[in-house]
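Q: I'm teaching a short session on how sequence maps to structure, and I want students to see two examples side by side rather than one. Could you give me a first protein with its sequence written out and its structure tokens following it? Keep the formatting plain so it prints cleanly on a handout.
A: Of course. Example one:
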Amino acid sequence: MKKGAVAIFFNRKAQEEKQEVVMLDTEVYSCIDDSCIGWMRKEFASNDLKCPLCGDDTTMEVRELPKIN
């Protein structure tokens, strides 16, 4: 190797092991307060359907989110 040269290595194995992210339309409960960013997936929602951040009411909507295994 020449002086000052930089060796570059590529790892093909790491590229092959990356799993594809599957996006799904998912029902979520989103906070009705415009200044709050709180939301939760339907399957993880609390029984009272209150915002996990501010405690305000939520409304159901659909978002495209990564699939949870």
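Q: Perfect. Now a second example for contrast.
A: Example two:
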Amino acid sequence: MDTGKKTSNDSNDQKNTDDETKLQTLRSLIQEGIDSGEAEYSYEDLMEEMDDE
């Protein structure tokens, strides 16, 4: 008989699916960052700019 309540296994399956989706998104974003290359910046210039504001 289906009471409409989720079982512990259903809950675990959903959590695992959510976790896998989050991992796939994270991996994709990390790769996007790697593919974008290095940014050239100067810490000192950044601090000076912030001080000027």
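Q: What should students look for in example two?
A: Point them to this: The chain has two helices and no strands. Also worth mentioning: The two ends are 67 Å apart (CA to CA).
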